UniProtKB/TrEMBL annotation:
Gene3D superfamilies associated with the record: 1.10.1660.10, Antibiotic binding domain of TipA-like multidrug resistance regulators
Organism: Paenibacillus polysaccharolyticus
Keyword presence, 4Fe-4S: no
Residue ranges of domain HTH merR-type in the record: 2-71
Pfam families xref list: MerR_1, TipAS
CDD domains listed in its UniProt record: HTH_TipAL-Mta
Family annotation (InterPro entries): DNA-bd_dom_put_sf (IPR009061), MerR-type_HTH_dom (IPR000551), MerR_fam (IPR047057), TipA-like_antibiotic-bd (IPR036244), TipAS_dom (IPR012925)
PANTHER family: HTH-TYPE TRANSCRIPTIONAL ACTIVATOR MTA, REDOX-CYCLING DRUG-SENSING TRANSCRIPTIONAL ACTIVATOR SOXR
Keywords in alphabetical order: Activator, DNA-binding, Transcription, Transcription regulation
UniProt entry tagged with the keyword DNA-binding: yes
Top-rank lineage group of the source organism: Bacteria
Name of the protein in question: DNA-binding transcriptional regulator, MerR family
SUPFAM superfamilies documented for this protein: Antibiotic binding domain of TipA-like multidrug resistance regulators (SSF89082), Putative DNA-binding domain (SSF46955)
């Protein structure tokens, strides 16, 4: 039975805007659009959406997911087995972390002794999901260059860069209700572009793509909106304007 976009939104716990975006980029195109313009999603659409959400949970970019699902050789059953194996491994690590927390509580109470190795069982931050997504979207060179620049900086310089980033976010948050096309906003968003190119190599196109990721990826949205509700969406729009004006 076909479902309307609002029904699919509630079913999958994702926003209507996200579903509209998936349609716009060709990631999830509803099998039917009524004469009144309503998107109607088929069972096949829902199966594809499930795969999209699985791959997204595992850190794949939307572009990478589309390439995977559009590949004629894609095997949905094989993909589900892969998802299961990865999630089982993730669950095992989470279970280990929970055990470590319980042991640490007992250790703090003086009821048991923990070795340094035991204190960090289950922790594994060897792969940064933001870095992985950036690599998939723009390739390794820009990310490697940015990482190298940061690593080459002394600790005080790295702290300075962090403070500078926070200052830019605060200034943008203060004017987030201003038109993104305004000279004031574009002046501030230019500072963000300059800042990013101090630690990396972002073309206007990549800058625009990064802004889109601020609203596509809930991790980015949550972090940025800590400075002010709606800031991620505002920056996405302002960065797109800046990129279009500086191509």
């Amino acid at each position: 039975m076909a479902m309307k976009v609002k029904e699919v939104s509630e079913l999958a716990s994702i926003s209507v805007r996200t579903l509209h975006h998936y349609d716009e980029i060709g990631l999830l195109v509803p099998d039917q659009v009524t004469d009144a313009g309503y998107r109607m999603y088929s069972d096949a659409n829902l199966e594809r959406l499930q795969q999209i959400l699985f791959f997204k949970e595992l850190g794949f970019s939307l572009k990478e997911i589309k390439n995977i699902l559009d590949d004629p050789a894609f095997d949905a059953e094989e993909a589900l087995h892969m998802h299961k194996l990865i999630l089982l491994e993730k669950r095992q690590r989470l279970d280990q972390m929970i055990t470590t927390i319980d042991k640490t509580v007992l250790h703090l109470r003086g009821e048991i002794e923990m070795t340094p190795k035991e204190q960090f069982q289950g922790f594994d931050f060897s792969q940064n999901p933001y870095e992985q997504e950036a690599r998939e979207r723009w390739g390794d060179n820009a990310v490697n260059e940015a990482n190298q620049k940061l690593n080459d900086q002394p600790a005080d310089k790295q702290k300075e860069l962090s403070n500078q980033m926070n200052d830019i976010f605060r200034r943008l948050a203060a004017i987030r209700h201003t038109a993104p096309e305004s000279a004031e906003v574009q002046g501030e968003i230019k500072q963000w572009y300059i800042y990013l190119n101090e630690i990396g190599n972002y073309s206007p196109e990549a800058f625009k793509g990064l802004g889109q990721m601020y609203v596509d990826d809930e991790r980015f949205t949550k972090n940025i909106d800590q400075f002010g509700e709606g800031l991620a969406q505002f920056m996405c729009h302002a960065m797109a304007v800046f990129a279009d004006q500086n191509q």
